[in-house]
Write a structure and sequence with these properties.
The protein has 184 residues and is mostly helical. The protein has ten helices and no strands. This is Pentacotripeptide-repeat region of PRORP domain-containing protein.
Length: 184
């Protein structure tokens, strides 16, 4: 019975955090989460990620990074969703280098990042050094046309025009695979 109560508390907290996030009120999310800690409600990964999502969407990145540290302190392992939110938020803020640091932390925790992590970094476009863009593309199993577009925008006028044919070839292969899958 106690296990059911703990699960209900975590679910209720997650729902409330989601409502605050959709309202665009990360401060209320943080207050609610702090109140749940004071009341000694059990927080789980979903609750932490709900708050993390609200913080990242609100561009409250300092508290978001602090929350990931707090997760470690209470033995809740941040997951790919946690890190992808941080990476995307840093790129939106034009701080791709801090997003890259989060990808490195994810890798130190045993994760490797996924296509979402890498696409988020590639969205930095011209701000991202082209060698890093192509390294991220090389790590992706099947980069999407959008990922290829973002990588090509990192080339700009000053960098690696010799890599553009490679991008066009990959884009062509991706489009052919997509078309052939659609015909099935």
């Amino acid at each position: 019975m106690e296990e059911l109560q703990v699960q209900t508390e975590a679910t209720s907290l997650s729902v409330a955090l989601g409502v605050c996030e959709r309202a665009g009120n990360w401060e209320a999310s943080l207050d609610l989460f702090d109140l749940s800690i004071l009341r000694r409600l059990k927080s789980d990964l979903v609750s932490f990620n709900g708050l993390l999502s609200a913080l990242c969407n609100g561009q409250a990145l300092r508290p978001a990074v602090g929350l990931v540290r707090q997760m470690r302190d209470v033995s809740v392992q941040a997951d790919l969703f946690s890190f992808n939110g941080l990476i995307s938020a840093y790129v939106q803020r034009r701080s791709w280098h801090l997003g890259l640091q989060q990808l490195q932390v994810l890798r130190q925790c045993g994760g490797s990042g996924d296509a979402v992590s890498k696409r988020a970094l590639l969205r930095a476009g011209l701000d991202l050094p082209w060698p890093l863009s192509f390294h991220l593309l090389d790590e992706m199993k099947d980069p999407s046309v959008l990922a290829l577009h973002h990588a090509s925008s990192s080339c700009g006028a000053s960098a690696a025009p010799a890599r553009l044919p490679w991008i066009l070839e990959r884009a062509s292969m991706t489009a052919q695979v997509t078309l052939s899958e659609g015909a099935k």
